[in-house]
Amino acid sequence: MSLKHGLLGILDCGDMTGYELDRVFRDSLAFFWHAQTSQIYRELSVMEGLGWLSSTIVPQADRPNKKVYSLTAAGREELLRWLRTDQTADDFNTKNPFLMRLFFLGILPPEEGIRTLSRYRELCATALEALSSEDSIEEYRQFAPTPACARYWAITADFGKKFYEMGIAWAEESVGKLEELIK
Amino acid sequence: MSLKHGLLGILDCGDMTGYELDRVFRDSLAFFWHAQTSQIYRELSVMEGLGWLSSTIVPQADRPNKKVYSLTAAGREELLRWLRTDQTADDFNTKNPFLMRLFFLGILPPEEGIRTLSRYRELCATALEALSSEDSIEEYRQFAPTPACARYWAITADFGKKFYEMGIAWAEESVGKLEELIK
DNA sequence: TGGGTCATGTAACCTGTTACATGATTAG
DNA sequence: CTAATCATGTAACAGGTTACATGACCCA
């Protein structure tokens, strides 16, 4: 149920089109939630059917018309209900395809493991740079409906940074271990 | 496609029943992959249909009969194919429901944020202990088909430990930041 | 003239979750 | 006596992915 609630949360910062919501996910939430464009549009129409959102079509010259969504009272209530619900069980419901593959990589020759971990290191480094030099969450501070919201955005981004730093250190250390075995 | 391949990977260590595969997921892979019992049974029969697995029913006195699955040649080929495939895109396809909720928690009073982060800290501490004092991956070393496999298991577990340690440090720091705002 | 951005979607499919059903044995 | 473990599943649903479709405008 998380994408729907993520969309509610963003719409609480102001009315938006599906296209703009998609950009928010790509630009600033991607490090903890990858959403497909098609899914965003689908969820939005489901949510409108549930009465959580209302929409207005805004005609534009030069560009395709926009369908702007707004939170309804029921939508805001649902957002608050979700935020207040204990989600302990869901919070640790992880699925990490990278670790799943790595777990079995001993079946292949050690060079494969070194390659996989080195590439992971690179990906972490790139992601860390993107999160730090941003474009991303810090710049969105201006859109925060309250200063408290911006504070949580920073805490979330901080998790991302620490996560990538940890990933880099772990990958380097692990590559080291595997290289020793080849010698 | 990861659960199917995870099951292939485990079955490469030896024949097993759905029930035993379920226990392996619960006991030692849970920190990177939570699988439902019902899904495991369903995927196993799909995989048998694909020709990746074969099964034998082993009658037991005193206990319900067992259905023991084995990798077929086609199944092992699929496992190798999957391991050799570049999965860069999938590796960073994250979905973190905890961060999704936290991101919007500024809407609620700060006490809620402190409670949420403190509980997260506790969950990390519990998970870290479980991973360290284990029961889990280290003890499974004996089941590794090759020593290389056990090495990757340890590298994966090390990721888990570092992840939880990072989570604890981050949660403590963040609670500190939020507490300052209340005073 | 070719690729990028703006803008919105549908259809089919795959993956994951929840709730339920059954029934024997064993340990506290 | 009651809860846990052993053991296997089905049905319905929710959530996520992939592939495709359309079409105008703008910049190099």
Pick out its properties.
mainly alpha; Arc Repressor Mutant, subunit A; three-stranded antiparallel beta sheet; 183 residues; DNA-binding; homodimer; elongated; 2 domains
How does this structure look, described?
The structure is a homodimer of 183-residue chains. The first copy, chain A, is mostly helical. Chain A folds into 2 domains: 90 residues, Arc Repressor Mutant, subunit A (Orthogonal Bundle), CATH 1.10.10.10; 90 residues. Chain A contains 8 helices and 3 strands. In chain A, helix 2 crosses helix 3 and helix 7 runs antiparallel to helix 8. The first copy, chain A, is elongated, with a radius of gyration of 20 Å. The termini of chain A are far apart. At the A-B interface, helix 1, helix 4, helix 5, helix 6 and helix 7 of A face helix 1, helix 4, helix 5, helix 6 and helix 7 of B. Chain A binds a DNA duplex (28 and 28 nucleotides) through helix 1 and helix 3.
CATH architecture descriptor of the largest domain in chain A: Orthogonal Bundle
Number of H- or I-type helical stretches of chain A:
8
**Level of helix content of chain A?**
55-70%
CATH class of the largest domain in chain A, named Mainly Alpha
Q: In order across it, which strands form the biggest sheet of chain A?
A: 1-3-2
Shape of chain A: elongated
- The CATH topology label of the largest domain in chain A is Arc Repressor Mutant, subunit A
Largest sheet: number of strands, sense, barrel closure of chain A? 3 strands, antiparallel
Q: How many structural domains of chain A?
A: 2
What is the strand tally of chain A? 3
Biggest interchain interface, per-side counts: A-B, 65 and 65 residues
- Could you give the distance between the termini of chain A? 49 Å
Structural class of chain A: mainly alpha
Beta-strand content of chain A: 5-15%
Instruction: Give unreliable regions of chain A as ranges.
Output: none
Oligomeric assembly:
homodimer
Radius of gyration of chain A: 20 Å
CATH superfamily of the largest domain in chain A: Winged helix-like DNA-binding domain superfamily/Winged helix DNA-binding domain
Average pLDDT rating of chain A: 92
The secondary-structure element order of chain A is: HEHHEEHHHHH
